[in-house]
Amino acid sequence: MKRKDFLKNGLLSGALVGSSLLANAITKEDNKDGEALNLDKSDKKNVLEFKNEVDVIVERPVSGKPHQGKVLLAIQAHSDDIPLFAGGVVAKLMDEGYTGYLLTMTNDDKGDTIGNRIDAENVAKAYGMKKAYFFNYPHHQMDSVQNQEIKCRLIYLFRLLKVDTIVCWDPWEHYEENPDHYTTSRAVEAARWMAGGAADYPEHFDSGLTRHSPRVRYYFSRDQQRINRIVDITKYIDKKTEVNMLNVTKGPAGQGYGSKLKARLAAEGKVLPILGNTDKEADHNWVKHFVFDIDSKRTNFSQLSNKTLGKPYGIEWAEGFHYISDLEDQTPNLIEKYIKENAKPK
Ligand SMILES: [Zn+2]
Q1: How far is the CA of 80 from the centre of ligand 1 (A)?
Q2: Which of 43, 119, 162, 269 is the most exposed place for a label (fewest CB within 10 A)?
């Protein structure tokens, strides 16, 4: 079994995902690997019985606007990243009151530069966001850009917009192939950390900016190895579908494949009930049911469909994230505790 396959299987079965356990992470059918690693039978037996050390929190829809006054920055390398991989959670957070911005890192110049820019602007508008930003780095060549330059621009934006929450690629995902995705995510995580300090770019403060670090992160990936947050997007799957259909120059959703399939089947004297009755329904349903469920691995490179992700939690449609919140960091002050317990009158 390849490590990547184990990690996937481990995730599905709730096994602990971690390289330190790799030596134990061999199933019975992996005799060949077992021999190669010189493992005896006792090493092999309990492979998938490890408990997931990560508690999975299910985030459900809430009523009202609990996030009013907070700022969301959704960051993508390309115009289809956020819609495909986090289109539901962004719809949810916007609906729950966030002021939103969309940042696209590349100029998509291996495709249709102008078209992709218009698509991203339309996506931001459909979400009700205030603005779409573009950093215009070269498509598929972001790894040629100085990380320091990317971080510097991100820190400025985090401080300027006073970003509370970011949605982006996961910087700790090991198997991402696209250099734009991993370059973006690593710069974002470093910039997020640095933006809250006083030591970096202090000249910002002379211009009226203040130190400010986004404190909540929803990180996604195509081949997720660490999911600690399942977000119920059932209420937003249709919105996610609509937003994806705005990507007409990239992605699998804006090309009218549903109505084309409906026409092909009609010529063959067939109908596919899942597509619905009209061309509009067919285009929508093709994306909703094929891209985000039935054929998600081939059509959008997601290892798990939005339905499969939700199934263990009794949720119809879900997205999964590596979620980190500094707001929940309640590390106790042990010095103060020690003083309280041990200090004596002089
Ligand atoms: Zn991408």
Answers
A1: 6
A2: 269
Residue 40 Cα to ligand 1 midpoint, Å, equals 43
Closest CA to 258 of 239, 238, 277, 275: 275
Q: What is the CATH number of the domain that holds 258?
A: 3.40.50.10320
Distance (angstroms) between ligand 1 centre and the Cα of 172 equals 16
112 C-alpha vs ligand 1 centroid, how far in Å?
A: 14
Single pTM value for the model: 0.82
Cα–Cα distance, 128 to 67 (Å, whole number): 14
> Domain check: are 189 and 326 in the same one?
yes
| Cα 78 to middle of ligand 1, angstroms | 5
Q: What is the pLDDT of residues 154-207, one digit of tens each?
A: 999 999 999 999 999 999 988 899 999 999 999 999 999 999 999 999 999 999
Contact 194, 152 (CB under 8 A): no
13 and 147 within one domain:
no
